[in-house]
Amino acid sequence: MRDTRESRLLLVLLIAIAFALITVDIRGGQDSPVDGARQAAATVFGPIENGVSSAVDPVGNAIAAVRDSGDRHDRIAQLEHDNAALKAKLGSDDRNRSRLKQLDKMIKVAGEGQYGIKGAEVIAIGAAQGFSWTVTIDVGANDGVKRDMTVLNGDGLVGRVTTVGPDTATVLLANDPDFTVGTRMESTDELGFASGQGDRPLRVEMLNGKAKIKKGDRLVTFGSQADKPFVPGVPVGVVSRVDPSGGDLTRTIYVKPFVSFSRLDIVGVVVKAPSSDPRDTVLPPKPKPTPTPTVTVTVTPSESALIDAQQQ
């Protein structure tokens, strides 16, 4: 066929018809109106295609190899993407497992102290309303949270609620210099007042200047009138240092908090106080002292000493 204007128009027309048929075929799916014609063509031309396949396979295989190499590259990229997503998921699962442990531990503390708590997540840290040691939690007035409620976690006293919004609240942490809580010594019931010192141990002024206190003794919250801002029995910390008594009316001790304030995540707001003081029941079991290993040295007589003993 000559390359004339008519031949070009015919070619364009045939291409347009082909695209139209392809569109109708795709939209028709299994009910495509050209399905019968396609099956008939396959019946007629199938044997011919099989007959010439040996001649065209090398070219076809080369094209397929180039196409498949792209597919393989895409599949590798997809696998790498999937692996990265899986690693991210595993990391998320590890974090979720850690948070689940925190939640379980906090629920156990709440059960032992008979505290009614509202679980929350720490969503922000930093200065709020002039406080230097605060966190923001994702529960608020809509969840029954009010100002001056005790906040704890699975380790002990976290702080108290200071401001409340509809869906969030600000918590003043127990290590803030403006924070003060009444404490009671385990077993001896000696009372004191603990104040925050930032990243240093809590400073506790004991009301009894002659109180017998030693390193390792533990404290809990004494509780407030009407249980606000503090409910009783929440673990506070362990005595790390005791100032020598100088005959003063009070005595100063330093307490390492049970709570790690730089790693807060899951906390609970005590929305219902216990019906009675849990006393020391919420404190964790005391660690058992590690036994000091003893070494027995056995002296083996030398060969010469044995010979001398035999000669005697």
Question: Measured on Cα atoms, how large is the radius of gyration?
Answer: 39 Å
Judged by helices, strands and strand pairing, the structural class is alpha+beta
| SSE string, helices as H and strands as E | HHEEEEEEEEEEEEH
In total, the number of strands is 12
The global form is: flat
Summed up, the helix count is 3
On the 0 to 100 scale, the average pLDDT is 77
Intertermini distance = 131 Å
Going across the major beta sheet, what is the strand order? Answer: 1-2-5-4-3-12
Uncertain parts: 38-71
Q: Could you tell me the strand content as a percent range?
A: 15-25%
The helicity comes to 25-40%
Q: How many strands, what sense, and barrel or not for the largest sheet?
A: 6 strands, antiparallel, barrel
Describe the structure.
- By secondary structure, the protein is of the alpha+beta class.
- The chain has three helices and twelve strands.
- The strands form two sheets. A six-stranded antiparallel beta barrel has the order 1-2-5-4-3-12.
- The relative contact order is 0.11.
- Keywords: Cell shape.
- Involved in formation and maintenance of cell shape.
- It holds the Pfam family MreC.
